[in-house]
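Attaching the record inline, Q. Sequence:
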Amino acid sequence: MENEIWFRPLVWMDYRLAVLFLVIIPLIMLMWAFVQKAEAIQRLLTIYWRVSSLLAITVYLMIAGFPLSFLSGLTARILIPIGLWFWVDLNDEIEYYPRGVLKFVFSAWRWAVSLYCILGAIATLPFFNCAFSTDAFKTPYCQVWLEAPLLFKDYFHYNSKPGFLGFLGIVGLIIYVLSLGYFMLFRLGKQGRSAIQQ
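Structure, as predicted:
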């Protein structure tokens, strides 16, 4: 069965890249921007963490073995680049921010993450059926994506049951969807593409 999944190393590489590009680097940059008092970068990174929280929710859904996790993971990869480039006022502030290492690293990261998420979304499209077919979800073809989340559980939640972690994932997903819905229906019309609340 191990040999059946030829793309297993690619799946694990994707998770490693996600930890690096989507967790470690933005966390360091947020602290860096706070120290440098780079408010526009701070605001954009705060928005990024709100949007990318869907990836954390996806991990918990995968731990519980919910097929819905494939849909939430794909949605997160689509929403992250949008969240990084949507705000006209922040884009302008960052463009005119004084040149320096922070601005260069942030800009490089923003482009790299956008490209990574877009390519990742395209690469996961062949697995879209895993979200809607129970039979497909149970195959090694889909189950290989659950290996890293289950290892995460073993390291950080070894005393917790998958069902409980899945429940937390569902609660998180409901809160996320309600927050996104509220933004789309009420706040977007008022503030448009401005990150500063009117």
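The chain has one domain: 2-191. The longest helix spans residues 162-191.

More tomorrow.
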